[in-house]
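> call design_seq(struct)
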């Protein structure tokens, strides 16, 4: 057997056991991946992405991080210590070792804990068994991890709130229907994106400058070619925003890549109508719930709250100069 494969398998087994032990704790919301998924997440490099995972010789603590090629920052993914080994400095020791190794191997000036980390950790929605979100946007501020990273020199750079709503019975609110009627009278309509009859999508994405949206929206095939529908507000044949693509994940979660509206169409309620249409269409194709996150100071939160979404967890984006 290849030595590297054997060592990776052994490390994955120990980390899996430790993760499973901690999964039942109130302050540890992360879903336990199976052994193969854990190996992919923490121990396997991907194109343009390096991973570092350090396991303590006792098997009772590990620290993991990642690095995107060409950047001057790295990411801390997780530091986890068995319950009986905490408060003895083991977690701090592992974090320092990870920081040292990240600095030795990569040209990083800062380490971050936030949603841009290419390693996505699935977490479970408190009080809603079976409901989950596919990425954690920082450090759970209600958990001991928040104080742990503060003590290690990490500082807050922003706050994120995670929103949740059951949508199996979603109905467009009457207030939203009134706004939609006014928009229709002014020539604004919500439609499924069709590049043959609509223009302006590429210009909109270019203006927004979001690489994730460039991939998930512009890179989505047309429904006729097996792609997923994208909802757009249009006026006179010009795209003025987007939401989607429409899809349902295995867990029953309605997929959410994001929502955006062109500045020229803001202030009219377009975003509220568009987001409500997204919820209604996701319900229609079988979604049972939706989750999303946004910055605490982001005005977009009013869009989600108008649709009945509530905050279920708050996170701190954190960073440290190294």
């Amino acid at each position: 057997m290849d030595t590297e494969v054997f060592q990776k398998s052994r490390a994955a087994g120990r980390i899996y056991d430790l993760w499973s032990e901690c999964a039942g704790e109130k302050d540890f919301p992360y879903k336990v991946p199976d052994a193969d998924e854990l190996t992919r997440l923490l121990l396997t490099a991907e194109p343009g992405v390096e991973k570092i995972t350090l396991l303590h010789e006792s098997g009772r603590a590990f620290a993991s991080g990642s690095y995107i090629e060409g950047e001057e920052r790295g990411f801390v993914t997780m530091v986890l210590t068995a319950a009986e080994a905490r408060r003895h400095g083991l977690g701090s020791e592992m974090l320092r070792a990870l920081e040292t190794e990240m600095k030795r191997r990569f040209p990083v000036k800062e380490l971050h804990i936030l949603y841009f980390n290419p390693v996505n950790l699935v977490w479970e929605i408190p009080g809603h068994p079976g409901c989950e979100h596919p990425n954690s946007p920082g450090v759970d501020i209600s958990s001991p991890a928040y104080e742990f990273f503060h003590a290690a020199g990490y500082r807050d750079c922003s706050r994120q709130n995670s929103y949740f709503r059951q949508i199996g019975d979603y109905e467009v609110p009457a207030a939203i229907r009134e706004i939609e009627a006014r928009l229709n009278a002014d020539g604004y309509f919500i439609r499924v994106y069709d590049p043959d009859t609509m223009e302006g999508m590429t210009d909109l994405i270019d203006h927004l400058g979001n690489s994730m949206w460039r991939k998930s929206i512009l890179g989505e095939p047309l429904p006729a070619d097996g792609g997923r529908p994208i909802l757009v507000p249009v006026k006179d044949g010009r795209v003025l925003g987007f939401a989607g693509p429409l899809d349902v994940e295995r867990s029953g979660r309605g997929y959410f890549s994001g929502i955006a509206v062109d500045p020229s169409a803001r202030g009219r309620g377009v975003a509220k109508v568009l987001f409500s249409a997204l919820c209604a269409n996701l319900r229609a194709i079988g979604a049972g719930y939706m989750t999303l996150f946004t910055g605490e100071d982001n005005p977009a939160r009013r869009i989600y709250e108008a649709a009945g979404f509530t905050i279920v967890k708050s996170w701190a984006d954190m960073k440290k100069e190294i």
